[in-house]
Design a protein that fits this description.
By secondary structure, the protein is an alpha+beta fold. The chain has one domain. It has 1 helix and 3 strands. It has a 3-stranded antiparallel beta sheet, with no helix packed on it. It is globular, with a radius of gyration of 14 Å. The N and C termini lie far apart (35 Å).
Length: 74
């Protein structure tokens, strides 16, 4: 299964494509990364809608502190 990642260093707002590192290899040294397989477990191609839905779910979880045992300093 092929994977694609978008990573971003802290302080970059992502308004410029040059803020991102796009790759297909192991995670890099950037501060944050969104990685996804190009197909799901049933070999079905993921869509943009699938990725946006996942990102929105991550945002909800981060904002509610539900993923962290010790709340972040945010």
């Amino acid at each position: 299964m092929a994977a694609i990642s978008f990573s971003l260093n802290r302080g970059n707002d992502g308004f410029h494509i040059s803020d991102f590192t796009v790759g297909t290899l192991a995670p890099n040294a950037n501060d944050t990364e969104f990685r996804f397989n190009t197909t799901d477990q049933n070999a079905v191609t993921l869509t943009r809608k699938d990725l946006v839905q996942a990102l929105k779910a991550y945002i909800r979880a981060i904002e509610s502190d539900s993923l962290f045992f010790t709340p972040l300093g945010i």
